[in-house]
Amino acid sequence: MKAIMFVELKKHLQDKGLAFWMLILPILFTVLFISVFTTGDNEAVNQEIIQSIVPGYIVMFVFFIMISMVQVFIKDRDRGMTARLASTPLKSYYYLLGKWLPFTYIVIIQIVVLFLFGKVVYNVSLGQPIILLILSLFITFTVTAIGLAMALTVNTENMGIAITQIIALGGAMLSGLWMPLEMMPDFMQTIAHFLPQYWAHQSFQDAMAGTTQVSELLQTLGVLFAIGAAAFIIAIIRYPYFLKRAVK
Amino acid sequence: MLTIHNVTKHYDKTEALKDVSITIPGGTCYGLVGPNGAGKSTLIKMITSIIRDYEGKIEFNEKEITDKTKQKLGYVPQEIILEEDISAFSNLQMFGRLYNLKGNSLNHRIKEVLALIGLSDRGKDKVSTFSGGMKRRLNIGCALMHNPDLIIMDEPTVGIDPQSRKYIFKMIEDLKTAGKTVIYASHYMEEVEKLCDYVAFLDRGEMIENGAISELLQQYAIPSIYVKGSGILQDTLEQYGTVSQEDGAFILYTEKALEAMEHIISHCRENRLEVERLELVHPRLEDVFFRLTGSNLRD
Questions:
Q1: In chain A, which residues have their Cβ closer than 8 Å to the Cβ of B73?
Q2: Interchain proximity B49–A84, CB inside 8 Å
Q3: Is the dihedral of CA B175, B179, B180, B181 positive or negative?
């Protein structure tokens, strides 16, 4: 498994496209939106907006890892790498873990870098860093599990990219990552409660402000884990079909 | 020794392989020959246990293929399947690690394989900068990292330059000398004839014939005579055997080739016909395939 993991990590770290999607673009969006929405004179309001935008764009952009996940699995399947590896002593579930785990590392690095950017440039408060870390680990699991399920289910890269856009952008809009949830109609606020982005965003904001309640935290972690686990089960169910197609 | 016992494989309603049995002696080079769709790649994927759902049995040294047995198998796929965005060294490192090579022994083996495939000076370069021939050699190198006893090559010379082809032939000769068993699937009949000791002909999923190449040539290939000249008539030649035409010349297939040549020479002298070229053609594996199937490999 380590053999696959090392190569994947090496490839990801050299991938300029991935760096753009995962770090540069969210930083650009964060800077742009903060400059647009903090033109008022009220410093306290401006800081409140920043405290919402920074975690909002972190949550939105972690979902873009799903594009890379789909690309990696579909490419491996179509160019024969999955089949070639099946001729080696590597067990099939080690292949899956070897491909999946590097993405979790990338997402954790992404979240840490973006929070540090917020801290250094906008002096955002990171009131409860341990809780932020725990939340980061859970959202990482949720996002990469959804990515894995999608990578093992879709037929083509284009299909995967399209679905990722719907999940990432649609979820961001409905979860209040772009604008305060209170400004949206009631039915949209209800929908938001079914989306991982909403829970992650709310809890990130609470942890940044240092106001996290244990019950609320557990609720968020439970929701994120449940969505991630459901996606992971779908991935496990789809995996044999993916392998069967890969060796044809 | 690799033994394939009565294997059959279906893809939905299509029968890709029908009751194929082959015994491949250790330390030999065994050719698998057949047109596209004959079932060569399917058989190879079954040997390497990429395909596992089939009827029949495949054994290597009298043991079924398991993860432990796979340590002794090296598979060179038909397509170039490498990680293009990392170096040749890293590719070999990955395949070495998959076979549990570590530390110094891994690094030492990478250097050995890079030398073997003639890429010692390009080890640190990204694979995406390599020529097709270099990628083909690295494709083979990855399968040799764990020094396997059985190397299975599926069309390893497709689309490469003559220099790389020569290099690959030399590698295969060296593997044979080192006592390795090589399975070589190809539809380049001349390559199989040059490299292999044994051959199995596959056509539409069935094994038509197999055995030592020298014996098959003796058994099936009819000697032929190449005749080119002006005024020589096909009817005249047909009294000695079967005649076909090729680029304005005649190919005469006959069991009594020398006798037929004498008659043709006499006939041409008597009738003052000009002979441009008259020669005895060495029997080829292609002829064996033609005799067995009634068609050429690349028809």
A1: 87
A2: no
A3: positive
**Whether B237 and B210 share a structural domain:** no
Asked whether the beta carbons of residue B75 and residue A87 sit closer than 8 angstroms, the reply is: yes
Closest CB from B49, B70, B81 relative to A79: B81
State the burial class of residue B11 (Cβ atoms within 10 Å of its Cβ: 0-12, 13-18, 19+). exposed
Write the burial class of residue B108 (CB in 10 Å: 0-12 exposed, 13-18 middle, 19+ buried): exposed
Measured distance CA(A149)–CA(A151) in Å, rounded: 6
Q: Verify whether the Cβ–Cβ distance B67 to A89 is below 8 Å.
A: yes
Domain count for chain B: 2
| DSSP-assigned letter for residue A20 | I
Chain B residue nearest residue A76, CA to CA? B81
The answer to whether the CB atoms of B86 and A81 lie below 8 A apart is no
pLDDT tens profile B210-223: 999 988 888 877 78
Predicted confidence at residue B272, as pLDDT, reads: 86
| Residues A111-121: tens digit of each pLDDT | 999 999 999 99
What's B232's domain CATH number? 3.30.70
B81·A15 Cβ contact <8 A: no
Substitution target from A77, A78, A87 for chain B, most B beta carbons within 10 A: A87
**Domain of B106, in residue numbers:** 2-217
Which residues of chain A neighbour B50 with C-beta distances below 8 Å?
A: 83-84, 86-87, 247
> Quick one: pLDDT at residue B233?
78
- Under 8 Å CB pairs connecting chains A and B tally to 65
What is the pLDDT at residue A217?
Answer: 95
Model pLDDT, residue A230: 97
Facing residue for B73 by CB, picked from A10, A15, A87: A87
Of A3, A6, A80, Cβ closest to residue B77: A80
Cα-based torsion angle of the residue sequence A93, A75, B183, B68 in order, rounded to the nearest 10 degrees: -10
Low-confidence ranges of chain A (pLDDT < 50): none
How far apart CA A78 and CA A71 sit, in angstroms, is 10
- Both B153 and B130 in one domain: the answer is yes
Share of chain B above pLDDT 90, in %: 46
Let me know if residue B58 belongs to a domain: yes
Give CA–CA dist A107/A84, Å, rounded.
28
Band of pLDDT at residue B296, cut at 50, 70 and 90: low
- pLDDT tens digits, residue range B111-129? 999 999 989 999 999 999 9
Asked whether the beta carbons of residue B94 and residue A80 sit closer than 8 angstroms, the reply is no
Q: Which domain holds residue A224?
A: 2-246
Partner residues linked to B210 by β-bridges: B200
Q: How is residue A63 written in tokens?
A: 């979902």
**Number of Cβ within a 10 Å radius of residue B219:** 12
